[in-house]
Amino acid sequence: MVEGEGKPCKIYDKGSLVEEHPNLITQLALDHYDVVVADGDHLEESYLALAEKIDGLLAEGYSVVADYTGGTKTMGVALAMAATDRGQKLLLTTGPRTDLLRVRFGSVTEQSPTDSIQFHRTMKTAVTKDLQRYDYSGTSRLLEDMLRGTTLTRDQKQLVRDLRNWSAALDAWDRFQHNEAFELLSNLRRHRSILGLAQRLEKVMTSRAGLDKDFEPRYRSTRAHGYEVLEDLILNAYRRAHQKRYDDAVARLYRALELLAQLRLKSAHGIETGSVEEEQVPQEYRSFCDFSSGRAKLGLFKAYELLKHLPGDSLGESFKTVEGSLRNALDARNGSILAHGFQPVDLDLWGKIEKEVVTFMKASLQSLLGKEYIFPEQLPSEVPLKMSNPQE
Questions:
Q1: Those residues with Cβ within 8 angstroms of residue 144's Cβ, 6 or more apart along the chain or in another chain
Q2: 65, 86, 112: which is the final residue of a domain?
Q3: How far apart, in whole angstroms, are the C-alpha atoms of residue 130 and residue 119?
Q4: DSSP bridge pairs for 110
Q5: N or C: which end of the chain has fewer CB within 10 A?
Q6: Within a domain: residue 6?
Q7: Tell me: the pLDDT tens digits for 69-103?
Q8: Residue pair 316/309 in contact by the 8 Å Cβ criterion
Q9: Are residues 148 and 191 in the same domain?
Q10: Domain coverage including residue 319
Q11: CA 94/CA 301 separation, integer angstroms
Q12: Could you tell me if 197 and 137 lie in one domain?
């Protein structure tokens, strides 16, 4: 029927031959064609052969139209899948049917709409996969591409817009661009499912502003306990570890441990580790500091050393009991490519450091903030489909 001699295309009606036609190439007057050969009953083989062919055509600058009318069921499914996966058009020849065998007469070839299929496949597969990896940037790009290249219903388009802003906000949050994240989330406050996330970010911003002189938050929360920016950094470290970026994760935990001391010194004693005045510290501690320029700067362990010398400071007292194990854990970190060496941090080393450092920090937060304190949940890793309903 494709290339055969004579008139191999035959039409029967009630068992009788009623029409004969030349092969399909002749009927379509094609001056160029390729025959893709695969086992017509093997879905994977058919899909791969067609996918390779379509990819080649797209790479040469062609667009592809796939008509899945003929062939085995497997061939039709494979062709539709390969074309749809690549965002190409589908055609189907239809007409009046008298049985389930074939369209007999009066047939017409129509385009089969695939945009809703693309929408659901992207939402259920690609977007979900990116979110499960906390790849908010990848999620945002996928949704932007959907808005640019897919015809959506009004409701679908609104949902994709909202989800794009939501994922872009989480991406900014993940990069510590808190004001940018807050601006994006503010545009989604009509959704109840977003309100709690925005309120949580307000507290993080308020907490950060307590130390970061260069940061002016768009909004300040009156309900912040002051350590939210530390919680945020710890969760950020866990997201990097989930992505198997263990060096990055350990670097964030190191910074978080330092941040805990900084927050405690500032909130309880009015001391900023980047600008310590001599009269702010006990006499017996001054030998540990360099006041040659008028003010001293304290790194991680010097900040905890100061807390140990401040009478009655609970964090300093807690640090005394775990100082050795914390130093050992962080010494292992010093060989990291992001610290002073070239040895990458693997899962095992990450686990050891995480256990020592995070256990200490969570216990410290519990002690500083009271028995009712609950460490916050991780940022979302699922599509909040309820956003499609502004009342939810």
A1: 164
A2: 112
A3: 15
A4: 92
A5: C
A6: no
A7: 878 888 888 898 888 888 788 887 765 545 444 55
A8: yes
A9: no
A10: 225-381
A11: 76
A12: no
At 265 the three-state DSSP class reads helix
- Residue 327, number of CB atoms within 10 A of its CB: 11
Distance CA 161, CA 76 (A): 33
One-letter identity of residue 188: L
In single-letter form, the type of residue at position 110 comes to E
Same domain, 85 and 54: yes
User: Which residues share a beta bridge with 65?
Assistant: 89
Residues 203 and 315 in one domain: no
Phi, psi of 120 (to 5 degrees): -70, -35
99 or 377, greater pLDDT: 377
Q: Which residue has the tokens 């996330």?
A: 197
Q: CA 26 to CA 3: how far, in whole Å?
A: 8
**Is residue 284 a part of any domain in this protein?**
yes
> CB of 208 within 8 A of CB of 308?
no
Residues 40 and 147 in one domain: no
Tell me phi and psi for residue 34, to 5 degrees: -130, 145
Give the closest residue to 303 by CA, choosing from 262, 339, 275, 359: 262
Alpha carbon separation from 287 to 284, 290, 292, 302, 377 (Å, rounded): 7, 8, 12, 11, 42
Q: Are residues 131 and 82 located together in one domain of the fold?
A: no
330 with 239, same domain: the answer is yes
Q: What is the pLDDT of residues 118-139, one digit of tens each?
A: 777 778 788 999 999 999 999 9
As for how many domains the chain has, the answer is: 4
> Which amino acid is located at 140 in the chain?
S
Instruction: Rounding to the nearest 10 degrees, give the CA dihedral for residues 273, 279, 283, 284.
Output: 0
Residue 48 is encoded by which pair of tokens? 């791969």
Same domain, 327 and 191: no
Q: Estimate the crossing angle of helix 73-85 against helix 43-59, to 10 degrees.
A: 40
* Closest CA relative to residue 198, chosen from 333, 384, 43: 384
List, for residues 10-60, the tens digit of each pLDDT value: 888 888 999 899 998 999 899 888 888 888 888 888 888 888 999 999 999
CA dist 154 and 383 (Å) reads 19
Closest CA to 241 of 227, 256, 232, 251: 251
| Cβ count within 10 A of residue 50 | 21
